[in-house]
Amino acid sequence: MELTSYGKFMVLSVLKGVGSILLDVEDVKSLFIDLLDRRNQYQSRHDFRQKILSTHEVQILCLLLEVLFSVPDCANISSETSEALLKALRIDGLYQEDPVVVMPCVTALQALQPVFFDVLKIHTKENVFASLISMFRTENTEIRNAARDALLRINVHASTAVKFIELIVAQDILFLKKDVIQRQCLVQPLFKILPKLLCEQWIGGIVYQYSIGDDASSVTPDVTNFMKEAQQLVLMILRDITDTLQSGHKDVLFNCGNVNLLINCIRSAKDLGTRNHGFSLIASLARAFPQLITESIEDLFVAIGDTIKQDDSHSQRILEDLLSVLVPCWLARTTSIEKLLQIFIKALSGVAEHRRLTLMVYLLRTLGEKNSMSTVVMCLLHSLVGRISHSPIHQGSHYALCLKAMPQEWEYELAVNITNQYSYKLWFHCLSKLLQEIRVHKNQNLLPMVHLAMQFILFKLQDTEMIFDLESEAAANSIQGSLGELMEEVVLCTVTVRDQRTDISGDALKELRDSTNTVLKITAGWMSASTYFNGISRLLEHSKSLVKRKALGILCETAKGNSLIERKQKKARKVNHSSPTTAPQLDKSSAPCFSELCFKILELVDREADSDNSVKIAAISSLETLAKEYPSDNPAYSKCLAKITNCISSSDTVTSSRLIHTAGSLINVLGSKALPQLPSIMKNMLQISHQVSFCPSGKYAHDSTKTDSKLSNQAISLLLSVLTTVEVIVKKLGEFVNPYLEEILDLVVLHQECASRTDEKLDAKAADVRTLLTEKVPVRLILSPLLNLYTGAAKCGEASLSLAFKMLATLVGTMDRLAVGTYHTKIYDHCLVALDLRRQRLDSFENIATVEQCIIHAITTLTMKLTEATFRPLFLRTLEWAEFEIDQSTTKRSIDRAIVFYKLVNTLAEKHRSLFTPYFKYLLEGSVQYLSEDDSLITSKQKKRAKIGDAKTEQKDRSLGPKLWNLRALVLKSLHKCFLYDNDQKILDSSNFQVLLKPIISQFVMEPSEHLVSVPDALSVEEVDETLVLCLGQMAVTARSDVLWKPLNHEVLMQTRTDKVRPKMLGLKVVRYMVQHLKEEYVVLLPETIPFLAELLEDVELPVKTLAQEIVKEMEALSGESLRQYL
What we know:
The chain is an all-alpha fold. Among the domains are: 1-156, no CATH class; 183-367, Alpha Horseshoe (Leucine-rich Repeat Variant), CATH 1.25.10; 374-527, no CATH class; 867-938 and 955-1039; 1041-1127. It has 57 helices and no strands. The radius of gyration is 56 Å and the shape is elongated. The model is unreliable at 212-220, 563-581 and 935-960 (pLDDT under 50). Residues 817-986 form the BP28 C-terminal domain.
């Protein structure tokens, strides 16, 4: 007995031949009783998935049963043997397929011989006979055949059978005798018997009477089996009678009470056979009397749900047959199948995974896959959300984490598996219906429901079969309608969630937003342009403003992903939700749908004033986006532009801004087709820009209602839109803007917001418009308006006037030879007039130098395009202008004009270099006078008319000092450039050298005025000193003769004998410049220079002494010998 089960079986098999003596061994007998008890215990367990006997143990039990019933002396059969026989014959309906139950029972039936049965006690015979009768109708074929053979072998006494005749003979006859006249009259009597058979008290009374004088524990199982058999037989007879009746039988044979009784019978029955017979009877009733079943249909499905865990093929077939007839009854009572599905889904939690799928697929097939699949999925998701939301495990978890965990639950997996049983052609259209049903319910768990639905849809959109098939155009066209419906429902669900959100976390909303955006991108990638545009059009017809705004936002986002211009059209679109998708592409076939969409959007633009302004703004922006991303000659754009133009003068600044911006985008697409609307556009734009912009001067200054120069953000946005649209108009219709040039120039030059750098973006856009005007508009059209802008610009200030001349310079730069020949005199004269602004001293200018720089730049740009023949007279006229005696009573020249003139000369010399050097012969006399004379340039007070107050006159007199300082600095800079570019010594010959030397040297001792700060553009002392050193140094380099160097060197050295530091430092710097640039050629000047350096080395001023030491070192390096002996 210490061996394994297999070892025991092998040993007992060898000893089997000894017969019943084997059971006399105490260990063998104990083993037999233990195995038999464990078998009965197994049948009594509810968790029958866990086996209590192994295969070898079952084989041992069968072997010992054979040994037990092979007793040669049948007269000595003990009570233990009889009890073992009854235990072996015991079977349960739930275990009729299990070898642990079947094999011992079949072994006992096969071993049961007449000689053995005859010697049994009467009571035992009755129990065995009852078991055989019960097994004779069992569903297991092996047990049924063995029971039949046993019944045929044994000898049954009449007294044994008489007790069973009273119970079953009538029922058996009724079941077998199918031609009984008026057999249906038995229905109600049988229903009267059925409650008693189900009543535990009635059964208990029978057991009590039957077991008087006997052991009740051994009698009860047998009687219970008899009752089960009787119940099943009644149900079988009733089903047999019902099956003979035709549907719609007029006689009232059944009533609601009968149906309710059957439902109670099913719910209270503990054995599988009774429940299955009850279900079969109800299925027959449903076929014959569907209206009768309909009244109790809900209770009936609850009963089905309670017993759905039965896991055998026969029960599965019965359940499927029952569902096939009950579901139509349910649908006849109500079109809603949600409660039906809730009952089933609730019961599925305890069912094995494979049976869940089988049951739900069959139920779905019965309900109709096409119409019911979306509801099935919704109910599964609803069950999941409800279970998770009430689960104590997840209540403390983060909401977003709970959402991420839901797709791992069995309800979600079941929904996926159900749809996987079908082709995408069936389930794809159900996706939109799923969202629609979720949206219509509007329960408190709307967000998680929509989130789960989006995750489910995203998973299904990755279906391999669908992606493969959609590469063909035919397959893609077959689901276009469903794609449009899906897009609409995604938008509507998103809006519904947004309407109902209360305390939802931002992470959860972000998760949902990301999911919906991904779904929309994927669907847009598969949709044809016509389907997409029609879907957006339907959404725009929705009553909710939020839906319209969402639809317009999606339209803009999708349109911005369009790449129609950059790449060829693709008929097949491969979509991956993690990668960018292809946007719908506009073609001829989709043009009507696109036009209809534009008109729908246009209706939103033309809404009443009291309507939602946000929708109007979104619609305007959408039109702009469509025009940018879908450029075409579609006639709808022309109609849109006309409507936009009429609405530009809106009272709302934001709306006007967007309208103007959109008008620009439409003009960019339409080109010359926008000409009919151009007058209205320009009129409305310029009118509204003058209302928000500050313009102190100009032609339209009186139209401005703005008094404060500070702009609001909305006003800046409006002006930016105006400038953007003007830019488009000039770019596309530059030849047609002549009637509006003055207004445009007024805006981009005179308006302070566009000229004074108040906003970076505004300034940049205005600069673009100004540049574009000079490039796109012909010179003959723009020149006169630009020159006429001078007076207004001068009143507006230096910023506006500077911009005007910058534009003029840019315009000159674009002129061809013919235009230069035609307009150069006019342009030069205009600039020459402007150069007199310094002398006029207008109050609107704080820094005249900035304006002068722009004017000089314009003149210089013009001179770069002139020939020698055209430039010379202009320059001589400019020189004459500079030396013209303003006040005829004084014969004095204007120092202001001289300053401006020499600024111009510096710039011309810098740009033209050696080409301009010959013109200095006209300037030498004037330059010497400006450097030499002081009193001749100062206007006498006595000979002036007192046009202003004495204080102001005195201030002007003091300012002459700084002006003269500034003028002399400019003269020195001009001479430096002259020397620098006079490579052929056309100017700096010996005579001119002598004329210029002393006036330049005289500047060493000239001191700046104490009012130097009063002239903003005046050069500082340091800058003048540097210019003076460069001028003299370059003068020496250009002279190229020691004959000219010696007087220059001598005059410079003589300036170091003064007591002032500045002349000493200037002299030393000039000497160092000459040493560094003349190099070895300066050696001839050393004898004269050394004595001066010796004096300077002993100077008390440290800077002078230091600089002198540095020069000595450089000279020593240059000469190659020490100069200490000469110092």
